[in-house]
Amino acid sequence: MKTEIIIAGFGGQGVLSMGKILAYSGLLEGKEVTWMPAYGPEQRGGTANVTVIVSDERISSPILSTYDVAIVLNQPSLDKFMPKLKPSGTLIYDGFGIVNPPQRNDITTYRIDAMDKAAELKNAKVFNMIVLGALLKVYPIVSTEGLQKALYKTLPERHHKLIPLNMQAVEEGMKLIE
Amino acid sequence: MEEKEIKLMKGNEAIAHAAIRCGADGYFGYPITPQSEIIETLALLKPWETTGMVVLQAESEVASINMLYGGAGAGKRVLTSSSSPGIALMQEGISYMAGAELPGVIVNVQRGGPGLGTIQPSQSDYNQATRGGGNGDYNVIVLAPNSVQEMADFVDLAFTLAFKYRNPAMILSDGVIGQMMEKVVLPPQKPRRTEAEILRECPWATTGRSKLRAPNIITSLELMPEVMEQKNLHLQAKYRQIKANETRCELTKCDDADYLVVAFGSAARIAEKSMEVARAHDIRLGLFRPITLWPFPEKELQNAAAGKKGILVAEINAGQMVQDVSLAVGGKIPVAHFGRLGGIVPDPEEIVNALKTKLIDNE
Q: Is the terminal CB of chain A with fewer CB neighbours within 10 Å at N or C?
């Protein structure tokens, strides 16, 4: 089993950290993982994307032509990555600011309103964890227990008090998928 | 047996961890994208408080390489790192080190050029790395890692080779390998060498003269042409010895292949996927990956290429290693090149398409 994922959005949305948590959770479950960011001047406001591969076998290329899953969080990313989804691939997108919704019949599409949910939770910073929750509902690449373990392992101790809030956001994200 | 700890980190971070763990005495460098995590990680890890390793941000790349010259002259295990434009600035110092026969490790996390170019990945410093890069007849040992694990493993290997042959060694990486995160098992912590060990292992080093021996002189300058020619002949003999002993390469599914793709570093990872794609379409493609770029695994490639229908050289440049591949197979097999430029990294399908259009369709 190998899952090839692209996560793309605006810089500052937590795209890279979402990918990192996913990769780290995969590692804790004994899988092969690769995390390849588009690096550069992509800070708050610009576009950012990261390729995450979680696999039971050796991973060859960190650079991909097509993906199993695309998580897109803004219009430019939707335009760029929807065509690169494999037939029968999965698209998860946040509806906020999308003017041209996706049109492909050969893929499974989930619209999630994670931005609205984050506003409802009064914490914009957990936006990426809501999205991650939605992904794990659709594609249980790693377990929520594994995810929680990864947070404890990767976050410095002074931030551990925030982990329950983040896990709550993951649960909320899962609920966004019908 | 204790289970090995698996970490998730960037290639650049792995270089920093590995440098400390292999008992390096010093790092000198100047930040530049896409490799600044090397000095950042070293600063975070503060090895001067544990192993006693010196970490110093130099005022420039020119200063870094000359600090390397100084440290190596004292028999210390020292390294520097930079990216393409910074490595270009270091070429004078690298040539001096080769001339003075000084061991040292230089890490190049390549980005696109020429000039300041781009901060995105590239492999366009192949010629510079494998042909010496500075003035004079000399070579640098060049290792090309294709994973975060190899970034970690090659630091100690580069030091070992550098000291074995008293020659600079380079780790030629790029923005893909430097920036991506993968699983890595770090090498065990080795102690730094003691002064007594340095005296024993580096009798040539300027370690402070006792009354019993003549002064050690470390220089690349020699004004007598007759002496200088002898010195050059000695260097050439050493390079022949390195060529005979130190070529490294990796062959994947070459035996039953009709075609070969030859690629190094990040391009070899992409080409590995191209091989999977090609084989799914009944094209029997094998992968030949040079691990040492200098010395180039010429004989190994000759053997692997025998009887094949064609070779595609996939590199992230305008065609540099393809010259070494052509020299190795000597016109016996069609050789084509595919590359992307300016910081664009090719994807696996582009390589398969190039194989079809440049070789298969032309038969």
A: C
Angle ∠(B289,B290,B296) on CA atoms, nearest 5: 155
Burial class (CB in 10 A: 0-12, 13-18, 19+), A87: exposed
CATH fold of the domain at B6-195: Rossmann fold (3.40.50)
Question: What's the maximum distance between 2 C-alpha atoms anywhere in chain B?
Answer: 73
Cis peptide before B114 (omega within 30 of 0): yes
CATH of span B250-360 = 3.40.50.920
CA distance B179 to chain A (A): 7
The residue of chain A nearest to residue B345, with distances taken between CA atoms, is A63
How far is residue B220 CA from its own chain's centroid?
Answer: 23
B185 close to A (CB below 8 A): no
Q: Check CB contact of B40 with chain A, cutoff 8 Å.
A: no
| pLDDT one-digit tens code per residue, A8-65 | 998 888 999 999 999 999 999 999 999 999 987 655 567 899 999 999 999 999 999 9
Instruction: Dump pLDDT digits (tens) for A141-169.
Output: 899 999 999 999 888 999 999 999 999 99
Note the ipTM here.
Answer: 0.93
